[in-house]
# Entry
Amino acid sequence: MSSPTSTPSIETLRNALRGVNDPELHQDLVSLGMVEHLALEGATVLVKINLTTPACPMKAVIERDVRNALEAVEGVEAVNVSFGATVRSQSKPALEGIQHIIVVGSGKGGVGKSSVAVNLATALAQTGAKVGLMDGDIYGPSVSHMLGESSARLKANEQRKMVPLERHGIKFVSMANLVAPGQALVWRGPMLHSAVQQFLKDVAWGELDYLIIDLPPGTGDVQLSLSTTVNVTGAVIVTTPQDVALIDATRAIDMFRKNNVPILGMIENMSYFIAPDTGNRYDIFGHGGAKNTALRLNMFFLGEIPLDIPTREAGDSGTPVVLSNPESPAAVALSSLARTLAGRISVQNLSSLPMV
# Structure
């Protein structure tokens, strides 16, 4: 007659999880403090893993590895895995209540930077993250139009702080919601600096995991004002594949590095075009220039986004393409980029390795 199977202790189960590493952070889940709850009900293990971001790109891998590790323990018959997420900052938050500030920049205009910023913010919010979006392009604001709120006006609360508008699960502010439609702003540097300060510190942002800032093109006053005012987690550089865009993108990278802003990676927008009628691919602006530049500059390449009609239609309609047409090639790419970006931020936050 066989002896009954012994019931494992919680410590035995925890030791099993010490053999499960976060695929991006390369440390075990227990050491990282990611095992939020661990219990045993009969022969069933109940475990809750607290991810470093709701947009964790390796969630499925972590779940598989946790199951395999715990099911290998004698006496365990079933494993119930659940997830939570807490976005953490390495030291003090970038601003009160805001864990991370991510700037989205480019060396020149016309590369689709604002469209990328809006869709990244929306995609992150769709994962459950608390996201804000600041339109830092004071002269040419476009965020409110892309979010379908061009006519809305920003108002102040009882504490005399601006209340951000809300759309598609994100909070946002834009100069377009403060001035009359079509009004040109003819401001010098000090006024730009003041506007940036107000958007950062005089807005009731509340608790945010990520504040995405859509920067104006180039390397001017707004970029310098940001880098000297707040603790920016990192910059995302958007470019198209052709040489003229890459030359200017390289200048933007140099500017951020000189101001000690880490580069989270490069994105190649309008990377290629798939004809909807034939399925043929066309590299209209060339292809691979951003990836080659990232390799040359020892930077991370976040990925590429195709040029497609739904993205243009979404930008005009006020509903980002990751919501209006989530199965389109560009939307799939943007959602994947958002998860990759969230992973990069977690790596920078918890890893002792320096960012380039």
Q: What stands out?
A: The radius of gyration is 23 Å. The chain has a mean pLDDT of 88. The chain has two domains: 10-85, 98-350.
